[in-house]
Amino acid sequence: MGVAGPIRIEDSADSRIAGFVSIRERDLTGREGRFIAEGTVVLRMLAAAHRSGRGIAAEAILLLESRVAGLASLLAEFPPEVPVYMADARVFDAIAGFNMHRGVLALGRFDQMPGRDALIANLPTCSLVLAACGISNHDNMGSLFRNAAAFGVDAVLMDQTTCDPMYRKAIRVSVGSVLTLPFAREGTAADLIERLQAGGFAIWGLSPRGETDVGEIAPAPRTALLVGTEGEGLPQTILSAVRTARIRQRPGLDSLNVAMAAGIALHQVARVNGRI
Amino acid sequence: MGVAGPIRIEDSADSRIAGFVSIRERDLTGREGRFIAEGTVVLRMLAAAHRSGRGIAAEAILLLESRVAGLASLLAEFPPEVPVYMADARVFDAIAGFNMHRGVLALGRFDQMPGRDALIANLPTCSLVLAACGISNHDNMGSLFRNAAAFGVDAVLMDQTTCDPMYRKAIRVSVGSVLTLPFAREGTAADLIERLQAGGFAIWGLSPRGETDVGEIAPAPRTALLVGTEGEGLPQTILSAVRTARIRQRPGLDSLNVAMAAGIALHQVARVNGRI
């Protein structure tokens, strides 16, 4: 941010903030390699991601003018070439088109992120991976990343049918972990399993019909926890290709939410492997 | 449902379905001892609650006509005096005022539910309680109930500042567990702790600053897990009155979501006490 401080925007049609216009609808349709970060915590994670050189960069920041003073130290974490704009509430809402942002928005860009095979090839000797197939709900996606970060996952690997974690709501629910945790989303579930097996991973598919209690998953230098779609879970073809684990629960109820189940399992695996 | 099958509603102003009008807005304001159940799974839990005589009853069911045939066996679980209405999509949406209901709605009534002290007095010798203070988000509330049901909690006890679990969205996220799991919401957190202590409960307050790892919580005939508000967690005054437990996680991140933390802790406590 230049020495003059944030640039005041008086008109929602100002071309300098065109990237922020109607973000609610726009991120549902096209992507253009851009994403939206909302809120202070996510902005802090974006600053960390920007500095890490992982292929994620902040393009611009837009603040409600009443938020500027309180965010000075956070803004200083961004390089000076990232423009910071501010607007009053009327102009701000006219730009963004909704008011869930708490007055803190950033536009980001991602490029040159390593693909799945490159990520796997670069994982440390001792590593923990979360693998996800067919996740379709952005809340669950965000929650999976938040848990993955909390329990020391090295990478999140998704099949091509899984929804995009760079979607605004997923980033928000992840409290920004999507921006800092390496991930890849490509190929089929079968491909992903094959690559993980070739990489020496013990792969545990999580299912209510799993054979091993999650509390009995043995420590291993490389463990991958695999979760499936919200409704049906992992298909039998996948479950028969990997080891399977279950979370015991009372009978007669819907199985746990996928992010909840992953959180419980990751916590167990992280504990037995001394990762937390 | 009478032998003639569901009653067709042709007009959204029909007085017989007045209870379903604009439910989205209405449950935000007044309650009148009524609640809305949405979706097939919740409807099934409502049928179970109705039969259990716990003070929860179905008053009426409203279905999109295309859903009627597939729900015949579920409708048969309700007593014949519960009216079943059906409407086409246009009339249905005009009644309900939004379209998140998947064409399955029920209006319920609750009364004569036992209070906190009566619930505690009637808990079995070996029991597990989830206690919650200051929860303000209905998604978290629903998720707490869903986890409590999954891990065999006997009752959910909340202080008076906690939000209402009978709110439509909380019931939906709980996949209906709010309707089947005994709960009470009254009094202060300090009162609640005192009553649980008098009842011989080992009370564990969950906090990132907790002393004992959740995996080390000792088995006990009666255990209460206590969780606090989404933002601040449990206040120090409460934490110093109980034993405290933490979920280990990587440093430098936001603490886990409250429902996630409760799920992980309940899973551990349920396992060591042989409840699942």
UniProtKB/TrEMBL annotation, chains A, B:
Any single Pfam family the record assigns to this protein: SpoU_methylase
Domain of life: Bacteria
GO molecular function: RNA binding; RNA methyltransferase activity
The UniProt record lists the keyword Methyltransferase: yes
Keyword Transmembrane in record: no
Gene Ontology BP term (one): RNA processing
Entries under InterPro entries matching the protein: Alpha/beta_knot_MTases, Ribosomal_eL30-like_sf, rRNA_Methyltransferase, SpoU_MeTrfase, tRNA_m1G_MTases_N
Keywords annotated in UniProt: Methyltransferase, Transferase
Cross-referenced PANTHER family: RRNA METHYLASE (PTHR43191:SF12), RRNA METHYLTRANSFERASE 3 (PTHR43191)
Protein name, as recorded: RNA methyltransferase
Organism: Sinorhizobium alkalisoli
Classification lineage: Bacteria, Pseudomonadati, Pseudomonadota, Alphaproteobacteria, Hyphomicrobiales
